[in-house]
Amino acid sequence: MKVLIVGSGGREHVIAWKVAQSHKVNKIYCAPGNAGMEEYAECVNIGVLEFDKLVAFAKEKEIDLTIVGPDDPLVAGIVDSFEAAGLRVFGPRKNAAILEGSKAFSKDLMKKYNIPTAAYEKFDNPDDAIAYLEKVEFPIVVKADGLALGKGVLICNSLEEAKEGVKSIMLDKQFGDSGNTIVIEEFMIGREVSVLSFVDGKTIKNMTSAQDHKRAKDGDQGLNTGGMGTFSPSPFYTKEVEEFCNQYVYQATVDAMLAEGREFKGIIFFGLMLTEKGPKVLEYNARFGDPEAQVVLPRMKNDIVEVFEACIDGNLNQIDLQFEDNAAVCVVLASDGYPLQYEKGLGISGFENFKGKDGFYAFHAGTKKTDTGIVTNGGRVLGVTAKGANLKEARANAYKAAEWIDFSNKYYRSDIGKAIDEA
Question: Per the similarity annotation, which family is this (predicted)?
Fold first, then answer.
């Protein structure tokens, strides 16, 4: 098979790495890809939203399967474009990707089908939103309705902070049209857990659990980011939690989408909050999490291409999804200043330290190949991932490996997976 992977981040790198292990695949292209993917794939300079060019390329190269990594093209309808051209593609259609594309839609869906989530109200008028805020208890959560690179969620501790949040999203258009509507919801207390799942429209198969760290600084301080590191599995995701979610969340979501005429094929990412009153859904994503994929996929035993094809063909029920009985931790190496201002184009060294070391990986996110070598090209530069027999060992290995890489404004959190010590 010839496979095309759409995207250029750490998520797409780990997908390419996993696809390269498939016995069914002999050629991989990535559009646009990054410096790390070139080890397994041929990178093509086409942007993720250039649907016509991507379709033309897939036809020209006789691509057998296209895998879409990021949220933007999915929400914009890339799968519909590929299917209209008679091409096989993995990911939800536009009318299903709305599960991530609109927080107002997903909250309304959960309310309608009794899927447990935080109490909320939605607003398309800033004055109405502010009037509502004057009646609520704090802290409160203010969310941009649309896509915002994982940064459109504000936890506000006071009325002033919340008013400022509404102003920045709705009036200053910090996230563009994604902030035309906002959702204001109750602040939930508990442990966060991420569960990624494969879906074929009717059947859902869950992957192993993970936990992300969204804030830029140690101790969950600083600004929201796309994710500063992850661990898998989560010791807080117990058998009881899993059984509850199987009954009230996972299949219920797939069934709800089907009932709404929005058949979902692809990945559903469930962001869960384990509250005193039981698990509740924080958010849905319509694709692999980044950096959750960097700890989940290295532990997956299956040929991922077979699973992708089962989702497309509607026979996921025939797949026995299996994961290694171990753990993995990913520490994101970022450019100092992320998620605001940071320098690009700085030389990166140390990749040779990963050669021949089983269970240690450097998944590229914001990197670029130049005549002088690989340089930084984004806020999140690399996801250094390591496995271990258990979470503590995996964490120690990941931090050891984080020291193998060097670039001049390297920054990373020192407490990824610290919650493991408390479990």
Answer: Belongs to the GARS family.
